[in-house]
Each structure stands twice: as structure tokens, then as C-alpha cells.
Amino acid sequence: MGWCPADLTGSVNPTAPAFGVPDGNIDASDFFFYLGQFAAGACDADLTGTVDPNASGFGRPDGIIDASDFFFFLGLFSDGCP
């Protein structure tokens, strides 16, 4: 099982051992885990400086958690695991 950027957790239950541990599957747990991180302003939610793939800040955290990060994650999520 290789690294998959949108695979963030095996559970959305914070008391479960799989919480925050990638499990090799992209599913609703990963989406809601990221959404929780994003809403909390967690530094792990900072994924990109822009959603423009031609811009230099694409895919590089910029210290600001905003809509660019959310939509970047949605792109990763929709791509699934290779």
C-alpha cells in the first residue's frame, strides 16, 4: 500500500485507534476528518497557496487556511488513491 495524499484517517471517531491513521481507503471518513481539521484551523489543513496548478504556490502550504486549501483537498479526494 503506497502513500495516498487524501487518505487521512480510518475513522472519524476521535476515540477510535484508527483516528488520524491512514487506512489505504479514500472514503467519507477522510473527507470529514479533513473538514474537521479545516474548521479547527489546524496547520495540517494548510495544503496549498493556490488552486491554480500553473502558479508557483500550488501544492505548497502558505500559512493561511482558506478556500484554496479546501478545494485542493477536494481535488486530492476526487483523484482517489493510485
What does this structure look like?
By secondary structure, this protein is mostly helical. The chain has helices at 28-40, 67-79. Helix 1 (28-40) runs antiparallel to helix 2 (67-79). The longest helix is centred in the middle third of the chain and has 13 residues, at 28-40. It is globular and about 40 Å long. The termini are close together. The model has no long low-confidence stretch (mean pLDDT 94).
Helix content: 25-40%
Percentage of β-strand residues: under 5%
Kindly state the number of beta strands: 0
Look at the helices and sheets and give the structural class: mainly alpha
SSE order: HH
Q: For the CA atoms, what is the radius of gyration?
A: 13 Å
| Distance, first to last CA | 10 Å
Mean pLDDT: 94
Tell me, what's the shape? globular
Layout of SSEs?
Layout: H1 28-40, H2 67-79
Helix pairs in contact: 1-2
Provide the descriptors you would attach to this structure in a database record.
82 residues, mainly alpha, 2 helices
